[in-house]
Amino acid sequence: MATINAPLTNDLRREVLVDEVLGELTNIRMKDWLGALKRWQDGALSMVHLNVLMLLRSNGPLPMSRLADLLDVSVASATGIIDRMEKRGVVERQHSESDRRVVEIHLTRRGNAVFTVMDAERRKRFRKLVALMGDSELSALLIGLRALRVARESLGPIQ
User: Fold this and answer.
1) Which of 23, 47, 61, 130 could covalently link to 104 via disulfide, CB atoms 3.0 to 4.6 Å apart?
2) Is residue 159 part of a domain?
3) Which residues constitute the domain of residue 29?
């Protein structure tokens, strides 16, 4: 918490408050981060594979060339990545309906299930955290999170 001896103007008070909120929102202990990475590694999906799944989930099916661009790899490298993911059953190749020459990469049911499992695990971990909070703290957090969602939605898609 910031301590300043001189009286604060409203603008300075808000700036200090914003800095403290950002500090709390971005405070992830390295131990927690490494633990999360290890859990997903044990799940046999690499960070690259998770990135591909997230790109497909947020963008829908993608042509191989566009996926390679988004991953910042060559089409040959993207092809190898997709080959391994296809063997695991999380993606599949399909010809575009509008241009049969274009191969699109689609999520499979198994690929979508990865997000279901991730969401369930995240909720389970958050449930343990919020169980340690009192009712008034939970209510305040809910109000703040809803305000954050409204602010995020007012900005539109983040590029």
Assistant:
1) 61
2) no
3) 10-42
Band (3; pLDDT cuts 50, 70, 90): low
Q: Is the pLDDT of residue 26 over 80?
A: no
The residue behind tokens 């391994």 is 84
Where residue 73 sits, what CATH number does that domain have? 1.10.10.10
What is the maximum alpha-carbon separation in the chain?
69
Shared-domain flag, residues 37 and 49 = no
Residue keyed to tokens 């490298």: 77
Residues with Cβ within 8 Å of residue 108, at least 6 apart in sequence = 89, 90, 91, 92
Alpha-carbon distance of 158 to 155, in angstroms, equals: 7
Nearest to 82 by CA among 91, 74, 71: 91
